[in-house]
Design a protein that fits this description.
Strand content of chain B: 15-25%
CATH superfamily of chain A: Thiamin diphosphate (ThDP)-binding fold, Pyr/PP domains
CATH architecture of chain A: 3-Layer(aba) Sandwich
Distance between the termini of chain B: 55 Å
Largest sheet of chain A: 8 strands, mixed
Distance between the termini of chain A: 19 Å
CATH topology of the largest domain in chain B: Rossmann fold
Structural class of chain A: alpha/beta
Number of domains of chain A: 1
Largest sheet of chain B: 7 strands, mixed
Radius of gyration of chain B: 21 Å
CATH topology of chain A: Rossmann fold
Helix content of chain A: 25-40%
Number of strands of chain B: 16
Radius of gyration of chain A: 18 Å
Number of domains of chain B: 2
CATH architecture of the largest domain in chain B: 3-Layer(aba) Sandwich
Largest interface: A-B, 45 and 41 residues
Structural class of chain B: alpha/beta
Number of helices of chain B: 13
Shape of chain A: globular
Oligomer: heterodimer
Strand order of the largest sheet of chain A: 4-1-5-6-8-7-9-10
CATH class of the largest domain in chain B: Alpha Beta
């Protein structure tokens, strides 16, 4: 893959046009910010598919549709397949100059949609798959998904007398996707919005399937103030619990490697979903973080 | 490729899909459907069919991919069988409710457990309520012809619904017959390229497959119901124009045989109908006023047609490869409901046979007529059992 062909997107040059508005997302929703920015980068000639999840629930309510581009809902498990169908249809119809984008949540991607996503990457159809990760099934009321981190209290992993919330670590989705030898995969955070926007742009320039996993906090499910979404999404990168990376040409690249990780206590303590965690749990979270980074650094080039 | 060829039901259907010029095909292999998608893959590879073939990782994805392609206005095809059909079941309601005119071939096969790759109708009949048009064909020629007609029905403006064409597993999918393969010119004269306003459009962007709240959801279902009923209105015209070009006609939702004055009528679906016709002829020679009705469309259900066709019958039996456990055969439930509106009282019988590929013999069929003739009890009975039904 060659380096980016055109100017980087930034706050100055990103379009003023909006393609996602009038929706019913909660105040401070990180997922809706990811959708808004992705469409600003890709533009009106984008064929969008969304399965069941927060973003489709808030935006496809007849007669109040919230996308000014073409959009369609998929069965929950079907995002990867509908993407291939849209692309194949657009090709046989002879359409030119368009993007095909799928946007699914963490459950819709890492759990129920994982098989169709794997099939999509295997076919290597020229589409973009965006997973907005708010770390639980938020639309149905905060249930654990495969991307819910260790220690999270959800309505299906409630922290109680015995439990510490979710006992499983986050599924390693980025590396699962990369293991398909996908042309382009990246992680991002809505806390680093310029990085995210430029990864969407880069994905749109790749031939074949590209995948972006963007962390998108949910004030309702995480127990933070609606004004804290972006700040928390930055902090999780700065403390190393999330990372900004890319995979292309068969190699991993870490985009942002903090010299020193920010202490994770403030990140844990400010969120309602983690308020039951003690020092021992925090040690476990740090150990897992360090293990992930060690592995990533071994994989990555230019370290 | 045109003219008479000796081919299987699966191959005949693939020829029909080729002639209909399906633009996007997505499918996942399952016995006994596999040959359809193998042939179509070959046709695409050989350049006989200008189509995108999507290799999906499941039946669920096969139908979701077809939906995505149909949303762009493309003509689409998929095929499946049995567990594959059940695996894609939730997608059936998406496609039907979203009014995507996809054509699917289903090779009728038993549903697990007990595991069986052989034919019966439990797979498709269990999904009658999923909003699709359901057709059952009798032979390879009708299968090819209905592959083409199915698109004309599905894409009709007042219908715009998906069509499932059902072929009996193995008995129809894998047996060879002399089949007349029409020319592409004939097919093109009958079936125009798909034209629709109901699609994604860069000039007028739309949202498709959306949510409708309690205020209007029932109204959407009513529209769907009426669209399905519209098939009855259009099927005759479609069949007439088909006959003009291809020289073959199938009639409407049902196909009656010696019913005009029939006292005893046996109703069937699919490939067993030929055997039943033979038995009807034998019984007629013996002086029994026997007749047969083959139901071609289970949805829309031919209620009025059945009442009309059974006007002189004192008894009507249903011979079906299905059981709705804990009640009766599904075809029988539908027939009985229709005949309850008949002006005269008809005794009705439900004969369950051919489950899991069990052979239905001529003697079995005669026993159905005998039970009706002797006015035996009307309880549901399983025919052709290897063991005594004394449990």
């Amino acid at each position: 893959m060659t380096s980016e062909s055109t100017e980087r997107i930034n706050a100055e040059n990103i379009t003023e046009d909006e393609f996602f508005f009038g929706h019913k997302a909660c105040a401070g929703c990180g997922g809706s910010l990811a959708v808004r920015i992705a469409l600003k980068v890709l533009g009106e000639r984008t064929l969008l598919v969304e399965p069941a999840g927060c973003m489709s629930a808030v935006s496809f309510n007849y007669p109040q549709m919230s996308f000014s581009n073409n959009a369609i809902i998929s069965a929950f498990a079907g995002t990867g397949a509908v993407l291939s169908g849209l692309k194949a249809g657009a090709e046989v119809m002879g359409w030119k100059d368009y993007h095909v984008l799928g946007i699914a949540g963490d459950g819709g991607t890492a759990d129920i949609g994982l098989q169709a996503l794997s099939g999509l990457i295997d076919r290597n159809d020229d589409v973009i798959y965006l997973c907005y990760d708010n770390e639980a099934y938020m639309n149905t009321g905060i249930q654990k998904s495969g991307l819910t981190p260790f220690g999270t209290s959800t309505t299906t992993t409630p922290a109680g007398k015995k439990g510490k919330g979710n006992l499983k670590h986050k599924k390693n989705l980025f590396e699962i996707v990369a293991a398909h030898d996908i042309p382009y995969a990246a992680t991002a955070s809505i806390g680093y919005i310029e990085d995210f926007a430029n990864k969407i742009k880069r994905a749109s320039e790749v031939r074949g399937t590209s995948f972006i996993h963007v962390l998108a906090p949910c004030p309702t499910g995480w127990g933070i103030d609606t004004s804290e979404t972006v700040e928390v999404a930055r902090e999780v990168v700065d403390n190393g619990l999330w990372y900004l990376a890319e995979y292309y040409d068969g190699e991993y690249h870490i985009n942002r490697k903090p010299k020193e990780f920010k202490d994770i206590h403030s990140y844990i303590k400010r969120q309602g979903r983690f308020k039951h965690l003690d020092e021992e749990d925090i040690k476990e979270i740090i150990a897992q973080r360090d293990k992930t980074w060690k592995r990533l650094q071994q994989y990555s080039v230019g370290q | 490729m045109s003219g008479k060829k000796f081919i299987s039901g699966d191959e005949a259907f693939a020829q029909g899909v080729r002639l209909a010029k399906a633009q996007v095909i997505s499918a996942y292999p399952i016995t006994p459907q596999t040959i359809v998608v193998e042939r179509l893959s070959e046709m695409v590879e050989e350049g006989e069919l200008d189509s995108k073939f999507l290799h999906v990782e499941s039946e669920h994805s096969a139908l979701m991919a077809a939906m995505g392609a149909a949303a762009t206005g493309a003509r689409t095809f998929t095929a499946t069988s049995s567990q594959g059909l059940l695996y894609m079941a939730e997608c059936l309601t998406y496609v039907a409710g979203g009014r995507f005119p996809i054509v699917m071939m289903n090779a009728n096969r038993a549903t697990a457990l007990p595991w069986s790759i052989y034919g019966d109708h439990r797979d498709s009949l269990s999904l009658l309520d999923h909003g699709w048009i359901q057709i059952y064909t009798e032979n390879a020629q009708e299968s090819l012809d209905m592959a083409i007609q199915a698109y004309a029905i599905a894409e009709q403006e007042e219908i715009r619904l998906p069509v499932m064409v059902n072929l009996d597993g193995f008995v129809l999918t894998h047996t060879y017959e002399a089949v007349d393969i029409p020319t592409q010119e004939q097919a093109d004269a009958f079936l125009k390229p798909r034209e629709t306003w109901d699609k994604l459009d860069f000039d007028k962007p739309v949202s498709m497959a959306y949510t409708v709240g309690p205020d209007l959801n029932e109204e959407y279902n009513l529209l769907h119901h009426k669209a399905l009923l519209n098939v009855a209105k259009h099927i005759e015209n479609i069949d007439v124009s088909f006959e003009k070009i291809f020289g073959r006609k199938y009639g409407g939702l049902i196909n009656g045989y010696r019913t005009e004055d029939a006292d005893l009528i046996l109703i069937t679906l699919g490939s067993i109908s030929g055997l039943v016709r033979d038995v009807v002829d034998e019984l007629r020679e013996e002086g029994v006023k026997a007749g047969m009705i083959r139901i071609r469309f289970m949805r829309p259900f031919p209620a009025e047609e059945l009442i009309r066709e059974t006007a002189h019958a004192s008894a009507v039996g249903v011979l079906e490869k299905d059981i709705s456990f804990g009640f009766e055969g599904t075809v029988y439930s539908n027939v009985n409901s229709a005949l309850s509106k008949s002006a005269h009282k008809i005794s009705t019988y439900d004969f369950i046979g051919g489950i899991g590929g069990k052979n239905i013999s001529k003697e079995d069929v005669r026993s159905c007529f005998a039970a009706m003739q002797k006015k035996e009890s009307e309880e549901v009975r399983f025919i052709g059992l290897e063991v005594e039904d004394d449990i």
